[in-house]
Structures are given as structure tokens and as C-alpha cells.
What we know:
The complex is a heterodimer of chains A (140) and B (284). With 140 residues, chain A is of the alpha/beta class.
Amino acid sequence: MKRILSVLVAICLAGSLLSGCSGQGKKPAGGVDLDLSILGSVVAYSQLVTILQNSDDYLGKTIKIKGQYYSTYFEQTGLIHHFVMVGDEASCCQQGLEFIWKGGYPEEEQTIDITGVLETYEAIGNIYVRLALTELTVHS
Amino acid sequence: MTEMLDKLAASFQFPIVRYAMAVGVLTALCSSLLGVTLVLKRFSFIGDGLAHVAFGATAIATAVKLSNNVFLVLPITILCAILLLRTGQNAKIKGDAAIAMISVGALAIGYLVMNIFSKASNLAGDVCATLFGSVSILTLSTTDVWLCIGLSVLVVAVFLLFYHKIFAVTFDEDFATATGTRAKLYNLILAVVIAVIIVLAMNLVGSLLVSALVVFPALSAMRVFKNFKAVTISSVIISVVCAAFGILISIVADTPVGATIVAVDIAGFFLFSAAGLFTRRVAG
């Protein structure tokens, strides 16, 4: 009986640890649904990977990210694509997210804060995910 | 200090961080439960060997594009655990040699498979994440979390239900057999449970650091306590506290999660060694 009780306690402990796990947290000020810029690099990278792995769950959400700016020319589309790169402190893992911006773009490898809405677009027969920016700030 | 607390509070708004804490605590709990038995049976290194097997199986699962790696990794790891623990004493290739052979063999095959079949652009990052668990624990899905909860409950239940038998098999297998305990059956159960723990712990600290989760809490507890029950209970507490601290430090200091947890475990070992030395001097 004592052992069965202990197993039940273990199950309750597991359940209590996960309580509230299903929510995405409160919506921060400024209309941003997910503010990754306030997180450390390890958590920010992990959250970005999670967003891209489950992009359907995040479409239409306003996301703020801090990272390094990179751009690259793709022959298949004939366009220059722009990315923000987020990596962990040891640069073991890096993840990029494409974005579009109506204003001027920063210089390569500059640290930027971007805010935008996650959307999909079609190119060369595939569906891709990108952030349509409403704000871009370059760190000096 | 306020900045650190703000960072922690902000991080815990995200489900991935809460998942990591829940899975981290449960994994630490399970690994330390069996850690005492493994250390006493002189099987400390088996965790390392099985983790390498799990790495090889993960590489194969990735190559064949399985939706959930666990369904391939878990059976293969269980099979190897049974081979190592059950046939270890009668096999032509004995204990440590068998572990070494399986360990490096699986590691090499895993890396080879990943290089040949992986189409990922960041192969070095993938290998780094699997070996050192740099951020694996922070990218868990809800399915992974519930799977971990289910397996953890299974491990705790098996340990509690067979506590006396495990105790008997741990200290004197021959005596246990002579007194009617089915030692082979309990060794088989131990092998399966150990394999489950290894697969769980790989997400937390990566396959190269799994042994630390199994060994350090048990050894720390043994510095201070001298009976099986006290060592097991304190080992669980040490392991859970170290894992929770490790995850929190990692979030605040932006360090790799697995390595940080192991570093906290090492600090805990030295702390308990000092405490053990102090209590022995006071007593004697």
C-alpha cells in the first residue's frame, strides 16, 4: 500500500511540474506575442528551433528576435534573401529565420532586433516561412 | 541579481523551459534511483556504453526518417543492455571488454551513418547536440514530455515494487539465488530499466555525459551515508537538486545545459566528500 501510494505521489509530482505547460505565457506589452530578444542565447535558439519545427502553431503571431543579420543570393529565386541568425553561446548550434523588410537593410553580421508577423510564402514549388517585419533596429 | 531573476522569469514564460525543467527533474530522479545499484554492482560504465548505443540507434532512426526516434532507439538500447547485463558473466567477451566494444562500435557506426545519410546542413551542430545534449532538452515536444513522464513513472514503480529484490541482487547475487530469488529475472528487469533511463537521460545531458547522471549522485551520497536506503534517498535528492540548479544556471549564464548539470554534480560530489570527511572526524 505504501509503495502504491509512493507511485501515486510520483505521478502527482510529474503532473504538478507540468501544470500550465500548455499555454504560451502572457502576451507582453507592445503587441508582441513572443519576445525572444529578452531571452538568453540558449533559450532563444531553442525557441526559434521550436517555432520552425511547429511553424503552423505560430503563423500570424508577432515575434521579436535579436540576432545577427546575414543575406544571401539564391539562384533558384533570383533574389537576395535576408536572415536573422540566432546561435547558442558556444556557436555549437545556429538557426536562421528569413525576413522581409520594406526599409533599408543593415550591414552583414550586424546585431539587429526585428519584430514581425510569421507568415508563409511559396517559391520554386515549396512553402517557406518568414517574418514580415514591422520594425528593425540595428545595434550600434 | 534582479536582471538574472528577470531573465529567469521571462524564460519560464515559455513552455519549452518548463518542459525542460520537468523532464530534467524526472530524468535526474530516475537515473539516481538505479545509480546506486549500478555503482555497487560495479557497472558504472554501462551507462556510457548504452548511451553510445543509443547514439548509434538515433543516427539510424534519423537516416530512415522515423517520426519519433524513441521507437527504434529504446528497443535497440534495451537489447544491448540485456546482452551486457545478463550474459556478461558467461560470455566469451567479458564485462568491461564487451562494454568497450559495443560503446566505441556504436559511436563510430552512428557518426558514419550520420555523415553518409544526413542531409542536414549543420551536421556538426547535430552531432554536438546529440553527444553533449547542448540544447536537446530545450527543444522537446509535448509528446516527448508525456513519454518521459510515462517512462519515469514506470521506472519509479519498478524500483519501488521490487526494492527488496533489487537490494538482494545488488549486494550478493549468489546468496540471493541460493535463497530462492530469481536473480536472472531481476537482472533482466534492471537491464530494461537502465536502458529506459539512458534513453531518457540522453535528451538531458547528451550521450557522452549520461554516466555522470548515474554515477555522481550515488557516489556523493555514499561519502556521507552508509546504508542502502539512506544512500538511495539522498542520491535522488542530490540528483534532482543538481539537475534543477544546472538548468537554472544554464538559462541565466547561457551555458550548455548538459555540461552545466554535470559541473553542478561534480561540485556536489566535492561538497559531500568534504561533509563526509568532516562527519568522520567529528565521530572518530
